[in-house]
Amino acid sequence: MEDIIHGMIFGAVATGFLVASAFFYRFWRKTGDRLFAWFALSFVVLGINRIASGVALGHGYEGDSFYWVRFAAFAVILVAILDKNRLVPKA
User: Fold this and answer.
1) What is the pTM of this model?
2) In a domain? residue 14
3) Computed from CA positions of residues 41, 45, 46, 50, in that sequence, does the dihedral angle turn out positive or negative?
4) Contact 17/34 with Cβ under 8 angstroms?
5) 3-state secondary structure the chain
6) Do 42 and 25 meet the contact criterion of CB atoms below 8 Å apart?
7) Domain range for 80
8) What is the sign of the dihedral through the CA atoms of 16, 31, 29 and 53?
9) How confident is the prediction for the chain on average, in pLDDT?
10) Does 89 fall in a domain?
11) Is residue 36 part of a domain?
12) pLDDT of 41-85, one tens digit each?
């Protein structure tokens, strides 16, 4: 029973990440702002990572490689925020 609940939670979180990615992708298409494109990419990576970690956990794999993928996704978000807020010299 516990495995079924964990699978449902992994699926719900992955769905949330992918829905958030779809929203950011739509905002990027409307505005052309790179911040939204980077956020969309990060949330796709997080969603796929959550699906992969759920499948791997179901097969008994408990490695730490999934944490590095999440770290990279959050690093992309941080870089996107810093890129958005960088100082642009005035002409």
Assistant:
1) 0.85
2) yes
3) positive
4) no
5) CHHHHHHHHHHHHHHHHHHHHHHHHHHHHHHCCHHHHHHHHHHHHHHHHHHHHHHHHHCCCCCCHHHHHHHHHHHHHHHHHHHHCCCCCCC
6) no
7) 2-84
8) negative
9) 89
10) no
11) yes
12) 999 999 999 999 888 877 777 778 889 999 999 999 999 999 998
CB under 8 Å to 44, separation ≥6 — which residues? 17, 18, 21
Torsion of CA 64, 66, 72, 74, to 10 degrees: -110
The token pair at 18 is 């992918």
Whether 91 maps to a domain, the answer reads no
Number of domains in the chain: 1
68 by Cβ neighbours in 10 Å (0-12 / 13-18 / 19+) ranks as exposed
